[in-house]
Amino acid sequence: MKQTEEQLVQEIARLYSDLDSATYGKERSNGHIYPPDASKFYYSAKRMYDVADELIEKYQPAYVTLNDYRFIYDSQRTLLLELEVLKSCKKKQGNNLTWELEKYLSKIHGLFYCILSHSSLTKLL
Question: Is the pTM of the predicted complex or chain greater than 0.85?
């Protein structure tokens, strides 16, 4: 099934929310907490890049300039490689992992801001 432009933008916003949960952990309904998770962060970031490519390829939205796309595309190789190394490092846990993932969350937010700013989900975050 073909997704609309708005659905792709909403998926990118949802994936960004997943990145936030993977960075800081998430509270469960029974009072326990999901800890920060580098693997979840990696797979959400990878999917985010894939959805952004699909969005730009199919719809060429005006709010994503050629320079924005180049930054996103150029960062994909290096950022995902660094995240892959981080997810395989089992020594980082808790606050140490959160501090490390915050750097990547900030980079991704800057890269995808042109798309995230057009999502109604981001306005709720």
Answer: yes
Q: Are 104 and 82 in contact (CB under 8 A)?
A: yes
Q: For residue 79, what are the CA distances in angstroms to 53, 71, 72?
A: 16, 11, 10
Per-residue pLDDT tens for 96-110?
999 999 999 999 999
Torsion, CA 101, CA 114, CA 122, CA 7, rounded to 10: -110
Tokens of 47: 């999917």
* Distance (Å, whole) CA 76 – CA 20: 18
What distance in Å separates the CA atoms of residue 38 and residue 19, rounded to the nearest whole number?
A: 9
CA nearest 48: which of 17, 86, 91?
A: 17
